[in-house]
Amino acid sequence: MDIKRIGILCNPFAGSGKARVLELTQQAFDCLEPQVSEIFVGPGDMGETVCKGKKVKVVGQDNTKTRIDTINTAKQMIENGVELFVIVAGDGTYNDALEGMKTVDANVPIFGIAGGRFNVIFPKRVHDPFVSLRGDFKSFSIKDLEVEEVRGLVTRINDKIVSYGFFWVNMSNVIAHTDTNGALAMIDAAQYIDGKIIPIAEIKPVATEDTRVAVHSNIIGEIELARGADVYMPIVAHIVPELNQIMAGGFGAISEAMGFQGVTYCFPGAKFAFFPTPDTFPNTARSIAFFAGDQVRFTNMKDGSVLCVDSSAITTVKSTDVITVEVVLELGKKAILKRS
User: Fold this and answer.
1) Which contacts (CB < 8 Å, 24+ apart) does range 314-318 have?
2) CA dist 148 to 43, 260, 338, Å?
3) Burial of 340 (0-12, 13-18, 19+ CB in 10 A)
4) How far apart are CA 307 and CA 153, in angstroms?
5) Which tens digit of pLDDT belongs to each residue from 11-58?
6) pLDDT > 80? residue 248
7) CA–CA separation, 248 vs 240, rounded Å?
């Protein structure tokens, strides 16, 4: 790759902790600074804190302490001519950076350095949306990078795109959050959209008697997954081995073998707060596999329920909203070191 302008962006709230994220960000900067003519960095702890020098230009915002900062910062970097993003964060930050690019109709490659909770907990997982480097930092040359397509999910509310994602989309009122001490807690998803960390005391339902989840397929027509107030944790995921191993009761592995690209499922009557764990087994799951281009539709969800993407709270929904999710095979671009 022949790159002159790069954007460096990090998330100090990523699961591996602020100190580790900033350490990796500085190491990336020290490695790349001699190789390019300009480096755009996010403000404050989004990059500026550890990236300094004559080639550095600070762009973007860090005032809301929400995903809006990442979206707008990525957008402004693109407008300044960035040709490659280097991001130290977790999956949610990659999603937000891609959304920032899409607002100006751009699709710049991302070289991701693992900084998120799941990036670190599962260091051997094959499919990460943009993660190209894990563990201790290793120097690399930009000219040795190549680009590959990344598949993912596009979510719309009433036909308007509201988010891009790379693992799953679900309706919930709780998300997992890592605090400054590295402890994992369940927090109120709706409050987190506004940047507030509020532990959740009870499981809130997302469905009503009129709730319906169905797949609308171009090939096999419409298939209903579930309906009614018993719908719990409805999820849409594109098929990757890591999800097949831990979710959908093995159905994902079967679907992958049969050539499907996505699976949607829910857990009728479940009582767990996040995803099923061994202490909640046995549990009941309902699943449907589908192809890229098909749509999974959620209708008549409970007012105030939260659309979550890759463990990030995106927006609350109304009962009148129609939420659709589909798999896209070429959603983003990932910069990787050339494979030997």
Assistant:
1) 314/67, 314/155, 314/162, 314/163, 314/193, 315/157, 315/162, 315/163, 315/193, 316/190, 316/193, 317/157, 317/171
2) 29, 21, 10
3) exposed
4) 13
5) 988 878 889 999 999 999 999 999 999 999 999 999 999 999 999 999
6) no
7) 12
Torsion of the alpha carbons at 330, 333, 338 and 340, rounded to the nearest 10? -30
- Distance from C-alpha of 213 to C-alpha of 285, rounded to nearest angstrom: 14
Its CATH architecture, for the domain 5-140, is 3-Layer(aba) Sandwich (3.40)
| 60-82 pLDDT tens trace | 999 988 899 999 999 999 999 99
* Residue 312: per-residue pLDDT: 87
Domain boundaries, the chain: 5-140, 156-329
Query: Residue 300: left if φ>0, alpha if ψ -120 to 50, beta else—which one?
Result: left
Q: Rounded to whole angstroms, how far apart are CA atoms 214 and 50?
A: 48
Q: Which residue has the tokens 């589909």?
A: 326
**pLDDT of 244 strictly over 80:** no
Name the pLDDT band for 242 (thresholds 50, 70, 90).
low
Residue whose tokens read 């120097």: 139
In single-letter form, the type of residue at position 58 comes to V
Bond preceding residue 34 cis, omega within 30 of 0: no
Give one DSSP letter per residue of 120-169, joined into a string.
HHSTT-S--SSEEE-SS-----GGGEEEEEEEEEEEEETTEEEEEESSEE
> pLDDT tens-digit profile of 258-294?
888 899 988 887 776 666 666 777 778 888 999 999 9
The class (CATH top level) of 156-329 is mainly beta
Tokens of 141: 């040359």
39 bridge partner residues: 6, 56
CA distance 189 to 206: 12
